[in-house]
User: Fold Transcriptional regulator from Spirilliplanes yamanashiensis.
Amino acid sequence: MSNPWLALALGTDPAERSTQVRRAHERFLTGDRTAGQVRSVVEDSWRRSAGALVSPDRCAPIELSDDELDAYRAAHPLARVLPLFRQLLGGIADDGEQMMAVCDAAGRLLWVEGHASVRRAAEGMNFVPGARWDEEHAGTNAPGTALAVDHPLQIFATEHFSRPVQRYTCAAAPIHDPATGLLLGAIDVTGGDHLANPHSLALVQATALAAEAYLAAHPAPARATAHATLLGRDEAVLTVDGRPIRLGRRHSELLFLLLAQPEGRTGDQLGIDLYGDDVNPVTVRAELSRLRRVLTDALLDSRPYRLRVRVESDVTTVQRHLENGRAAAALAAYPGPLLPGSDAPGVARRRRLLDGQLRAAVLASRDPRLMQTWLRAEWGADDLEMWQAYTSLLPANSPRRPIAAHRVNQLNAEYGLATGLQRPRH
Assistant:
């Protein structure tokens, strides 16, 4: 086949092909990982689906509903191009044989439109707004696989990993944020075998390109701006449009963990980063509920938990300087370790990482002034390796050299190096 993203070659009998792929699917499920009778993009997707432990008889889970779904999709960037989707694909949604669906970058269906009888039939496999149709949760399907491979494609009938979906054929194309290039979601057309033709694939691809062009020409209005201060203090301050919000220790940890993963975290993931092996799901949910009351729904989403506004922080400022090789600027922007009083595993791990990266940059700079700044700080005062490097770089006639050498000797004695013991890792 010249186009690997098309489901059927010209002249192929759909019924015969469906039977052939169904047999390959059954062989795959019994352990034949080289089915050979399917397109490589489909076989690769089957492998990912099986690796995620998706059951072939499973339906997609529903993650959002009612008011929560309404609020989430109203705030989603693709809401601004929904009229365009309806204009270009409205005929498909109304003809009683197909459905139009829009999902977000995680595969959650935001809108499913079409004739009422078709939508009712699709409810049996949870092809409804709020359901999670990425490969990890629903197996091979056009919107989920289009997101996984970041390419328009068709999935024909028995190419679907989940048996309840194999009566349908679909074509989908990913949609990107024109400003950042990041995935926003996908546009999908779902119906019968007649969709396995070049026209349906070209249609969804053209619709996706039109949506990206519209978003580029009509950028979203400026959202609330926020800044978080987390370095050198045990309790964070989140400033939103000039209004400071002071957070307690646990909420400060949650804020940072959400900032570290802007695409969102589940409650279980946050719980592990907060409590490690002692995680109690009830405690995590209670803390998140309290944090949501503090920040309000305008700032904090759930399922997954994520911040709804772009938040800059002193942590990202230091990281940006380090990424650009600006050790002096990074050190100047670093008032101290990240939430130093926190023992949350996820925070402590990232605190060590940031501290280590900054320390390595200061050492690599071979700049005595930067090293002196580090050593004068509380967190750097006992850093033997830094004292040794600093001493070696001072001129022999520098009045600071004897003082630095004395401090090296002090630390050598404290760390027991004279007895062959190793100093503690910084």
User: Anything to note?
Assistant: The radius of gyration is 28 Å.
